[in-house]
Amino acid sequence: MTSLATLLPEPLDLGGYRAGTPQRAGALTMVPVYGPARPGIVPPRSGLKLKRVVGYGQVELSNGAREGVAIVPLHIGYIQDAAQNHALCASALLGAGQTRRFDDACCVQAAQGGYLEGRDQWFFVLPAELRASALALRGQHNYSKLWDEISELNRACGLPSRGHLEQILSRRRATLTQFQSRLELMPGQLGALFFLGDRFAGLELAPDPVYFAEVWTALVCFAYGVAAWRAEPEPEEARPYEAESLAELRAELARDRAVRLAEVASWMPAPARDVRMVEEERYLDLRLSTLTAGGLAGQVVTEHGRPVYASVFTTR
């Protein structure tokens, strides 16, 4: 469970990353990932901003930092006051002070007007159920391209069948944000493996712990929390330990951790074959590529062949 090297072999080498102790909250299991940090990348909450919604399917993002490139998290979306909510289909690289317009954004709020400049905004990452479709639709200028799938997701959640993602993200926000408190962000953590039930769901890597801490809520509550909320199991009856001393209690806890580690390790997918990376854009020595490998897809940023950022998820 320690090394991630076999998950995605060359051309994406994860040999420098290792997995920590699993944590579980209902149907969602998170395994912290540690590894080499790449300082100098602008984090998404403090440095990256939605500048304005130009029109349906058209948004402008800006890197407000004085120095450093911003890596736009894959499938980032914004909920904003009195304006149209959108999400991006792909990641991007923005230089310091750069503003960039995205014309292939997904409108995630059907039939709601408003093109105000972004204010009172917070960001999310598209739920896992929508990510494969969103990635496949990158480059297509059709603002309503996710409405049908959003409607299906709402229906699966027992909500009105409409192309309004805020029915889940905003109205169920209090429920979804419980995952943030039930799973602990660890010191030095710069990534995570996510599992839904006993199924691998995704790998998220950030340049450094500061970046990951800023995208943590969007990932654990919205990208993976929606599916976990839908699959929330019945509470298990607590099993009391039979230890009669502190030493015996520690031994029982160690045995439980070992069993849990072995169980989660068995959920890891087989090593990916035919890993294919297609470069989408570059900034200095950073390369943003789209990755496909069997039942996996996502985007990664590399520098001199070393991973700097990755968001890879299952497509099945």
Describe the structure.
This protein has 316 residues and is of the alpha+beta class. It has one domain (18-232, 246-314). Helix content is 24%, strand content 30%. It has helices at residues 128-136, 147-156, 166-169, 173-176, 178-182, 209-223, 225-230, 246-267, and strands at 18-19, 23-25, 28-34, 48-55, 58-63, 70-72, 76-79, 86-87, 92-94, 99-102, 106-107, 122-125, 191-196, 199-205, 276-283, 286-293, 296-303, 306-314. Strands 1, 2, 3, 13, 14, 15, 16, 17 and 18 form a nine-stranded antiparallel sheet that branches. Strand 15 (276-283) and strand 16 form a beta hairpin. It is globular. Pfam families: ARPP-1. Residues 17-313 form the ARG and Rhodanese-Phosphatase-superfamily-associated domain.
Chain-wise SSE layout:
Blueprint: E1 18-19, E2 23-25, E3 28-34, E4 48-55, E5 58-63, E6 70-72, E7 76-79, E8 86-87, E9 92-94, E10 99-102, E11 106-107, E12 122-125, H1 128-136, H2 147-156, H3 166-169, H4 173-176, H5 178-182, E13 191-196, E14 199-205, H6 209-223, H7 225-230, H8 246-267, E15 276-283, E16 286-293, E17 296-303, E18 306-314
Antiparallel strand pairs: 1-3, 2-3, 3-13, 4-5, 5-10, 6-9, 7-8, 7-12, 8-11, 13-14, 14-18, 15-16, 16-17, 17-18
Protein name: ARG and Rhodanese-Phosphatase-superfamily-associated domain-containing protein
Organism: Nonomuraea fuscirosea
InterPro entries: ARPP-1
